[in-house]
Amino acid sequence: MKSRFSSAMIFAREHANRELTTTMTASAEKVNLLGLPKTDLEQFFVERGEKPYRARQILKWIYQHGVSDLDAMTDLSKSLRTTLKDSACVSVPVEEARQDSVDGTVKWLFSSGSGQAVETVFIPEPARGTLCISSQVGCALDCAFCATGAQGFNRNLTAAEIIGQVWHANNNLPMRSNGEPAVTNVVFMGMGEPLANYRNLVAVLELLLSDWSYGLSRRRVTVSTSGIVPHIDRLGDDCNVALAVSLHAANNRLRNRLVPINKLHPIDELLAACWRYAKKHSNRFITFEYVMLRDVNDSLANADELAALIRGKPAKVNLIPFNPFAGNEFTRSSAETIRRFQERLRERNIVATTRKTRGDDIDAACGQLAGKVSDRVRVRLSKKNLRMASA
Length: 391
Hints:
The chain has 12 helices and 14 strands. The chain has a 10-stranded mixed sheet with strand order 3-4-5-6-9-10-11-12-13-14. The protein has a two-stranded parallel sheet with strand order 1-2. With about 400 residues, it is an alpha/beta fold. It has helices spanning about 40-45, 55-65, 80-85, 145-150, 160-170, 200-210, 230-240, 250-260, 265-280, 300-310, 335-345, 385-390, and strands at about 30, 90, 95-100, 105-115, 115-125, 130, 135-140, 155, 185-190, 220-225, 240-245, 285-290, 315-320, 350-355. Helix 1 (about 40-45) crosses helix 2, helix 7 packs parallel to helix 9 (about 265-280) and helix 10 packs parallel to helix 11 (about 335-345).
């Protein structure tokens, strides 16, 4: 598979020393092969006097066969396996807890060290199995209706910690009836802002899409963002996946309140980046996520305002019933209000769906993931920091 992937600087200088930039290391001595893109794995073997094709073998063992024991990789010579064990390992995330919902949704809590943890959610459906994965320990963007933002921010997850969530799910859930792995779709909609962890995000996207690892269709991988405009443009150049944008309001006054990053990149700037992204990839629609908050953004006038923003553009709207969490000021719009809002959009020729709430009995629904975030790092959102991230 040929595609262009690039690295990026981290989101803000304030927490540069907090990010685990050594995605290759599971310990001070050994390289963690989990999370390494194909080119990095090839370099790893070349530096040790081996042929580059060893990387393809390792990728297939880790991701297609779900093997983490180097001794079990039997198409590698015994001597190579012995050598590898001295310098490398496949270190996967440690599960702290698992919860199963009455509707079949599964939520895991994974340790991220120092008493902190992130959450991952699997949503089974007849035609697919969707895994909602996290990209950061907490989140610095502080959206008003999101439990993750209320927890604060500590650090970016490494590529191994991100792709390890997929690895763990596929290795701990039964295969689908057709023999496929449990996870058929991956959405970056868990804890954190994926585009604020850009370098590790694109490394994971490569592994998800590559035929040597998971080989998922581009239509089955979705990156959700609150609106880091420079990285939307960069993602459009680097990788073709589905893009979802957390819009939640159709005017800057209200969106400033709900999604604070709007103060840096207001709606017109954000939408312009979305249309550029769609133009770079044929037949690519942008999904706009819109959480339904009672008496805040759910009137028919709000629907008309939203329709006016995106009418005639490659766009669709996904309405999300608000999922409450402790200490939050908002309440969910009524089912009838959501229905009327959706119908109003459709009357304006906008494709609009309503997301079915899943896993709310285990706090696994959209906006409820909190994990464990301690030792919070204060991150000041500024255009300077955003420019650093896109350098």
